[in-house]
Amino acid sequence: MGASQQEQGPLRVALLGCGVVGSEVARLLTQQSADLASRVGAPLELVGIAVRDASAPRPLAASVDRSLLTEDAEGLVARADIVIEVMGGIEPARTLLLRAIESGAAVVTANKALLAEDGPTLYKAADTAGVDIYFEAAVAGAIPIVRPVRESLAGDSVRRILGIVNGTTNYVLDQMASTGMSFDDAVKQAQDLGYAEADPTADVEGFDAAAKAAILASLAFHTRVSLEDVAREGITRITADDVAWAAQTGHVIKLLAIAESVTGDDGAHGVSVRVHPALVPLTHPLAGVRGAFNAVFVEADAAGELMFYGRGAGGAPTASAVLGDVVSAARHRVLGGKGPEESTYAALPILPASTAVTRYQVRLAVDDRPGVLAQVAQVLASKGVSIEAVRQPSEPSVPGADGAEDDGSTGVAHLVITTHAAAEAALAATVDAIAVLEPVQEITSVLRVEGA
Ligand SMILES: NC(=O)C1=CN([C@@H]2O[C@H](COP(=O)(O)OP(=O)(O)OC[C@H]3O[C@@H](n4cnc5c(N)ncnc54)[C@H](O)[C@@H]3O)[C@@H](O)[C@H]2O)C=CC1
Ligand SMILES: N[C@@H](CC=O)C(=O)O
Ligand code: NA
C-alpha cells in the first residue's frame, strides 16, 4: 500500500438488502477487504446492512456479521459514503437512493425494475449532486455490458442489440428442452437456485427482460427508453409441444430482448425495443446459451459484431458486478473524477415493435390430403408474404404428451412454414386468412425467427 493510500480514511459502505445478492456482496466485501482496499486506495468499511427483519434466520448469509443488520435503512443511508441497493422493488428503494444521493453518497444498484421505471429521476439527482450512480449488475448479472455500451462503445454507433438477458426464463426453456421438465417445476428450480425475482412473474412474463432492454436501449441509442416503451411477451404461452417442435425443425426457443435502430413507414428514424420468445436456429451462437447463462450481441457501425456471455443471475455472479461498480465509485472518492452521466442527446422517437420486419415460423395442423399445401401457399402469396421453406416433419415426441394426435389414424398433417422477412401486420393478416381455410384444423403456433 502506498503512502497516500495509508493516509486515506475508510470509506463507509451501506448495504440495502441481504438476500441472494446482498449476502454475497457482504461476503465479498468482508473476505476481499484487503485486496479491495489496495485497489481502491482506501479501506471499504461495511457499516450496516438494512433488512426488513433483523432477527430472521439468514441461511444465505451465514458468514455475515449479524451485528451489522439493521431495520433502520434511512439511518444507515445517512452515514454512508457509498450506498449499495440490492433490496429490489420500487419503494422504498427509490426514496433511499435519492436520500443517499442528496446526502452526497455514491450509489450502486442492481435494481433494473426501478431504473426502467424511473431511472432518469435518479440520474438527474446524481448529476445535480455530482455523485456517481452505477448499475452494471442490473443488466445480465455478472456480464460486463452496461460499461461496454455506456463507455467502450461511446465513440461508435450501435445499430442493434440482441440478447438473452433473463437467466430464469433461459433456465426454464433449457430444462424443458433438454430434460422435458414441466414449466412449473423448472420455475421452482430457478427460484431455489436464486435466479428468479422475488415474484417470478417478472421473469416469466418478460418484465425483467423488458426492464433490461429499456436500460440497454437508453444507453445504446442515447435516448430515454422506459419499461412502457418495450413491447413485451413472456414465455408463459410456450408449451412443451412448442419446445419439441422447435428442436424438430432445427431451432431452440429463447426469450430475446431486441433493441434496434429502425426506420418507420414515414421514413422517420427511431428505436424499437421488444422482448418475446423466438426461434433461434441451432447454428446460431445464442442457441448454445444454456441454463441461467445470458448472452448479448451488439452490432455497431465500426466495431461490427460483439458478443458478451456469462452468468446472468445468481448471488455471487451478480455480486461480482456490484463490487466492480463499488470499486469504481470508491476510486473516484479517493482519486477524484466521476463516472458517466445520462446521455439522452439523440432523443430518438420510440417506434412500435411492429416496425421491425422479421422471419416467422407458422405451424399448423391440416387435413392430411392432397392440395392443402397449395391452398395455404396461395394465401401467403396473396398477402405478399414470401415463403422461405415449407416442411411436413414427422411429429416430435413430447415428454409427457399422450401422443393422441400423432398415431397416423387421425388424418392430421403438420405443416411448418418459414417465411422470409415480413411485416407483423402482413403476417397477422396471412395467419387469419389461413386459419379459415376449410382443411386447416388449427394454427398451432406463430413464432418469430431471429438470428441468421
Ligand atoms: N437474484 C439475482 O440473480 C439478481 C438480482 N438482481 C436484482 O438485485 C436485487 C435483489 O435481488 P435478490 O437478492 O435476488 O432479492 P432477495 O429477495 O433475495 O433479497 C432482497 C433483500 O432486500 C431486503 N429488503 C427488501 N425490501 C426491504 C425493505 N423495504 N426494507 C429493508 N430491506 C428490504 C430483504 O430483507 C432481503 O434481504 C433486485 O433488484 C433484483 O432484481 C439483479 C441481478 C441478478
Ligand atoms: N431474475 C433475473 C435475475 C437477474 O437479473 C434473471 O433471472 O435473470
Ligand atoms: Na452486467
Automatic annotation (TrEMBL):
<dbReference type="InterPro" id="IPR036291">
    <property type="entry name" value="NAD(P)-bd_dom_sf"/>
</dbReference>
<keyword id="KW-0791">Threonine biosynthesis</keyword>
<keyword id="KW-0915">Sodium</keyword>
<dbReference type="GO" id="GO:0004412">
    <property type="term" value="F:homoserine dehydrogenase activity"/>
</dbReference>
<comment type="similarity">
    <text>Belongs to the homoserine dehydrogenase family.</text>
</comment>
<feature type="domain" description="ACT">
    <location>
        <begin position="361"/>
        <end position="452"/>
    </location>
</feature>
<feature type="region of interest" description="Disordered">
    <location>
        <begin position="390"/>
        <end position="409"/>
    </location>
</feature>
<comment type="pathway">
    <text>Amino-acid biosynthesis; L-threonine biosynthesis; L-threonine from L-aspartate: step 3/5.</text>
</comment>
<protein>
    <recommendedName>
        <fullName>Homoserine dehydrogenase</fullName>
        <ecNumber>1.1.1.3</ecNumber>
    </recommendedName>
</protein>
<dbReference type="InterPro" id="IPR019811">
    <property type="entry name" value="HDH_CS"/>
</dbReference>
<keyword id="KW-0486">Methionine biosynthesis</keyword>
<comment type="function">
    <text>Catalyzes the conversion of L-aspartate-beta-semialdehyde (L-Asa) to L-homoserine (L-Hse), the third step in the biosynthesis of threonine and methionine from aspartate.</text>
</comment>
<dbReference type="InterPro" id="IPR045865">
    <property type="entry name" value="ACT-like_dom_sf"/>
</dbReference>
<keyword id="KW-0560">Oxidoreductase</keyword>
<dbReference type="InterPro" id="IPR016204">
    <property type="entry name" value="HDH"/>
</dbReference>
<keyword id="KW-0521">NADP</keyword>
<dbReference type="InterPro" id="IPR001342">
    <property type="entry name" value="HDH_cat"/>
</dbReference>
<keyword id="KW-0028">Amino-acid biosynthesis</keyword>
<dbReference type="InterPro" id="IPR002912">
    <property type="entry name" value="ACT_dom"/>
</dbReference>
<dbReference type="Pfam" id="PF00742">
    <property type="entry name" value="Homoserine_dh"/>
</dbReference>
<dbReference type="InterPro" id="IPR005106">
    <property type="entry name" value="Asp/hSer_DH_NAD-bd"/>
</dbReference>
<comment type="pathway">
    <text>Amino-acid biosynthesis; L-methionine biosynthesis via de novo pathway; L-homoserine from L-aspartate: step 3/3.</text>
</comment>
<dbReference type="Pfam" id="PF03447">
    <property type="entry name" value="NAD_binding_3"/>
</dbReference>
